[in-house]
Amino acid sequence: RASALGAAALACVGVVTAHGAGLFNLAVLGGPVVMAAMAPGLERLWRRGGARRGALLGAAAVGLLLVAAGAWAMRSSLASVLSYPRPGGNLPETIWAVLTDHPLLATFTPWYLGNAMMTVLALLGAVSAWRTPGLRRWCTATGLSVVLILLAAGPHWPPRILAGPWYTQRARIMPLVTIGLLVLATLGIAEAQRRWGSGNEEPTGSRAAAPSPRRRFAVAALSRNVPVCLLIASLVLAPAWRWSLKTEILQAIHDPERIAYGTMLSDDELALIRRAPSTLPEGAVVLGNPSNGSAYLWSVAGVRVVYPSRPEPPGGDLLWLGRHLDEIGTNPRVCGILAQRGARYYYTDDTVADGATGGGREPLWGQALDRLPRQYLEAVDRTPDGAVTLWRITACD
């Protein structure tokens, strides 16, 4: 037992060292297991009363103080994680994704069953485990994981902060659910073998009504090897049920028209950027929202841009310009900043940025950079579909 505890302690240290969120993962999955294992001994000490009960209370107080001290020492990091802005999700979609093993990267065709067989085995295992006190802790750990993922997917309300250590992101919590379901599915296979895996029944009735020897052999073989049959069925059904879903997942990762969080460049847009040095005069500086692809003018074609990267500038004129560019016709400071930077050209991309099922990349900041009135622009070059255009700014002439 000592060697097992030592190995478990080293594993816990490794998990926490790999990533700070591992501490919260251990609390969710390992907390119920540890508490269930310690409960009998703690109960015995508590019943003895006296000094032992006082020692338990003192140890609990010291533990709370250590947790509070650690939280205070990491208060800035915890505050940034817990307050991370994340829009509310879709509860029915999340429940279906958990039941059918749908990835939470984006929204996919809902009626694909995914690996639903694993869910069926996990539910069977949960029923069996709940009836066994020593295994009930796994039901609790998996249930906590499901509650957390539903909190992350739910509306903005106070309990949602419990999902904060995972940036309130469903996909970060889903591995906890998967680990719990795998354990319960293993218990479900054992329960299936116990219920239906006898293989010892002899056919009853007259000899004429008895099944054929081949059928008796097949039934006996299947009932004696329920785990093997379930494995074979899973190897056949899971790929079949997930084939179309896998196609959509690959499209959401690699297809420029379907990438889940939007694409900054299309093929036509890249061609426009590559011919920009010959389209624009030497020394031209281009203004544009860096999230719509304009930043690639500098890295791909060597054309100078006002905003070469997506993050928000630390302050000053560039930050102000990103918030007030649409005032170019009424606020002379806009033209003053453009003249100071030498920016006389403007880059637009009209692709809708939905941030969920393809389209353009959503901007991190500076929405006004996409709202320069077209009456102050003169087209220089554009893609064949007209979605991306290079303009000359005429408002400051």
Automatic annotation (TrEMBL):
Keywords, comma-separated and alphabetical: Membrane, Transmembrane, Transmembrane helix
Domain of life: Bacteria
Pfam families given in the database record: DUF6541
Spans through the membrane: 28-46, 55-74, 111-130, 137-153, 173-190, 217-241
InterPro entries, A to Z: DUF6541
Signal peptide from the UniProt entry: none
Name assigned to this protein: Uncharacterized protein
Organism (species): Actinomyces johnsonii F0542
